[in-house]
Fold this protein.
Amino acid sequence: PAVVEEPRRIIQSSNIADLDDSKWIEPTKDAGRQELEIKMGNEHIAFTVAEIGSLVDVAKSVDPEGLRVFYYLTQDLRCLMFSLISLHFKIKPIP
C-alpha cells in the first residue's frame, strides 16, 4: 500500500544508510536523546544522537551535513505520521 511505500521512499531518497553517527553529538544523562532505527529488507541501521533543538545545534556539530540529513529525515517522517493520525480522526464515516 501507498502508506507503507511513502516512508520507504522518504528513507531511501535521504540516503541515511550511507551516514555514520560516530561524529554526532553523544547523548548524556542530562540531555534528551533521539534514536532512529530502520529495518528495510536485509538492512538494519540504528542512529543515536543527543536531542536536537534546532538547526543551530546541527550547525555546531562535527558532522553538520550528516546530522542535517538525520534532522530533516526525522522531521519528514514525523510530519507524515502526524498527518496520517490527524487524517484518521477527521474522517467521518459514511452513513
About this structure: DSSP finds three helices and two strands in the chain. The radius of gyration is 16 Å.
